[in-house]
Amino acid sequence: MPGLSDLLRLIPSGGPAVCNISVTNVCNATCDFCSFAHDKGLVTHRRWLDAARFGAALDLLHTRANVRFLTFMGGEPLLHPKIIDMARMASSAGIQATLVTNGWNLLDKLDAIADAGVGTIFISIDSADPAVHEKNRGLKGVCARIKEANGRMAKRGMTPVASVVMSKLVTDYRALGAFLRELGFKAVTFSYPRKAAYGSSSMVFSEDSDIVDVSAEELIRSFAAADGIRDIIPVQNPRASMADMVRRLRGEKERFVCVAGYKYFYLDWNYDLWRCEAWDKPMCSLWDFDGAQTIRDGCQACMTDCYRDASVMLHLAVAIGDAFKRLSEARPLAAAAALANRQTIGALGAVVGQGTHLQGLSGIGRSRRPAKAAP
After folding, report:
1. How many domains does the chain contain in total?
2. Which of 28, 130, 182, 302 has minimal Cβ neighbours within 10 Å of its Cβ?
């Protein structure tokens, strides 16, 4: 995991970067709103990230892109036969890994994941009603498995976070918050519904799903309801980001731009490096990446939550990096302007508001030796 001194050293260059890594396109679930669903037959060629090259890939991400945080995704990442080895490689490389899963295989691999240095697990939940969730997932009994896994994570000092799509399956957000607490989650993060196909290799969408066929007004109400459960369970989506998405839905000007391609990346199972899942062509093969391919163009083309939410959190470090650059150019007024604006103040508030969450994701303050499994 990255050390505090390492993170601070990166501030003059805009701070650390994040990478989402899809390690496979294979999934054991049947989610209506996802094209990775195995019953849809859209995954015609099963792909697995080549773990033998993963160490070299981490070195490139660390040294050339300043990546210090990554998220293993899929498909279902726990189906990758080398996922534990890759998590251990990330920790050894000074990169803090998290993982997104449907939870079905988590119990069998939890201790190994913890020993590999993964401290936060994102587990998908679709509804406050376990029967509705399990029907959408095609995984009968998964809620009981998730609850048991969350209890074991608490004993290991890990943080289970619920990952919830703001779909029509969520009919009562306060009931959802209570249900997540009952399952043992420490926080929730909301994903924003999407029907349109991504331009990249990612298949986290479904063009024919009715449950993500949500109008702008319905989604605005969902944002208000999701924001309103912070007294029940911590919500990891920054308020400033959620407010920006509401502005977007209302046709108003957004305050924050996306830093995907500059401080956030997507790496697929082919080792192609993309600025994000939504983009229609990769930046390059990772093996050709030298830093010159990074993109910073003020993009606001979509509302993909992981990139837009993270961009608010990363804005402060990016602004400080910009200020350092302006000072090196002997432009003190421009340096001050990079910091003294509404966006930077809003980002500072978001960072302060999510301080505990950021500490948990970064591993700062946590022992570098993973806790041993309880007997």
Report:
1. 1
2. 182
